[in-house]
Design a protein that fits this description.
Structural class: mainly alpha
Number of strands: 0
Helix content: over 70%
Radius of gyration: 21 Å
Number of helices: 21
Distance between the termini: 36 Å
Strand content: under 5%
Length: 430
């Protein structure tokens, strides 16, 4: 049995593990197991595997999680929420619009839809109860906004994602193309626009009216904590803004983005905005280790030639279509469907590298396919397996599966048409 065959078997088993094993074993454990198996079988050398733990993209992501958690530790979210309540004047649509915009803004800074949704939803639903609107009318529109609006503006979350994608480009030795945060913004802004319109004006018409929704809500979006001192409040705000500006202008400053993020993370911890325990918990080590494992598997596929073989097989299908829009629709629907049965991060971690392989084999631009993969895995909201946001939505909104389908079919169709049509126009494959 050749190394390529062994590598392909490990890859397929890892994919199956993501699909059926994530209920019992974390995605990070599955990814790292796949990587280690490649080391044991000689598909991946140990030095390359270990190099993933020191990868600059992994360090950048971990540090940005700390910086974002430092901002969340301040009172900014509470201040914004109070302003929304004051401006809404009892109007459900105004409340919904205010919190939808708030979630859309938060997801640009905090690279986690579940975190942003968890912060906002208790405050939003408390207002719903105050204005005597059943919370089930509010939950899905805000959940839809959370899962679909991440990584749109060229801010910290998008910058961190660019670092991850660039790591995949480097792993597959396909440096003919480079992706920037502005590329993601240019590709995704129509999606954010239509999602906000749908969430505010269309989706509420299809939401059920369940009086028992939102039961047991906490009174605040965060754990009860002592407010920070005025000095630490300023440090929390200021550090976040300085890191953000530094990362946007990192090229002009000639400072790598991971160094800027690490400096910010150290300031947040050293100043006491976050204590040691909070900083460690905010790093989201599970996501970081998943990335390391996926990167190791990508390196193994590349080293054994399996990556080229997979890319050529997929390229035959895509080239056979001979149409950017049909190819884009295929590349969008495959991860979208799979994500209904697998956690979205797992699907993305597998298919983003696959799309890079595909484009390398054709000498094509991988930016459009990769962004299609990002969006397809984000907006998968028809089953609780797709993303952690969905089970939380079902719990707080008292939704059933049929409710998710009824509420989600129009957003899915509209986003698919807008996403594929726009991205395959501005970043065509052929």
């Amino acid at each position: 049995m050749t190394q390529m065959t062994i590598c392909m078997i490990i890859f397929v088993l890892t994919l199956i593990g993501f699909a059926v094993g994530s209920k019992y074993i974390s995605l990070a454990t599955i990814a790292l197991t796949g990587m280690l198996t490649m080391v044991f079988t000689g598909c991946l050398d140990a030095k390359t595997a270990l190099g993933g733990f020191g990868n600059s993209s992994a360090i950048l992501m971990a540090c940005m999680f700390i910086v974002a958690a430092g901002l969340n530790r301040t009172q900014m979210i509470n201040h914004i929420s109070k302003s929304i309540c004051r401006i809404s004047k009892g109007s459900f649509r105004r409340v919904l619009a205010g919190y939808a915009v708030l979630i859309a803004v938060l997801t640009q800074f905090i690279p986690s839809a579940i975190v942003c949704f968890s912060i906002v939803i208790p405050m939003a639903l408390a207002v719903c109860l105050e204005i005597k609107v059943n919370p089930s009318k509010m939950v899905f529109p805000l959940g839809l906004t959370a899962v679909a609006s991440t990584l749109t503006l060229p801010l910290s979350a998008a910058i961190s994602e660019v670092a991850r994608i660039e790591g995949f480009f480097e792993a597959y030795d396909y440096m003919d193309y480079s992706i920037t945060a502005m590329d993601i913004t240019w590709a995704k802004w129509p999606v954010l626009a239509v999602v906000l319109i749908l969430a505010i004006f269309v989706v509420p018409r299809f939401t059920p009216d369940y009086p028992d929704a939102g039961a047991g809500l906490p009174g605040d979006g965060r754990k009860e904590q002592e407010p920070l001192s005025p000095v630490r409040e300023v440090i929390g705000y200021g550090t976040f803004m300085l890191v953000l500006v530094g990362m946007i202008f990192s090229s002009a400053l000639n400072i790598p983005t991971w160094q800027i993020a690490m400096a910010g993370a150290l300031i947040v911890v050293a100043s006491g905005v976050l204590n040691k325990k909070e900083a460690i918990e905010s790093m989201n080590l599970s996501m970081i280790l998943l990335y390391v494992g996926a990167l190791g598997i990508a390196n193994g596929l590349s080293a054994t030639g399996a990556a080229d073989m997979i890319g050529k097989s997929l390229s035959n299908v895509v080239m056979g279509l001979n149409n950017n829009y049909l190819a884009g629709l295929l590349l969008f629907l495959v991860p979208f469907i799979l994500t209904q049965f697998m956690l979205n991060l797992g699907v993305y971690s597998i298919f983003a590298p696959l799309y890079i392989m595909l484009c390398k084999s054709m000498g094509a631009n991988p930016i459009g396919p990769v962004i299609l993969c990002i969006i397809a895995t984000q907006i998968a909201f028809f089953t609780p397996l797709a993303t952690p946001v969905v089970p939380l939505m079902m719990g707080q909104g008292s939704y059933k599966m049929k409710d998710l389908i009824k509420m989600g079919i129009i957003p899915f169709v509209v986003v698919t048409v807008v996403c594929v049509g726009w991205i395959m126009t501005v970043f065509p494959i052929f």
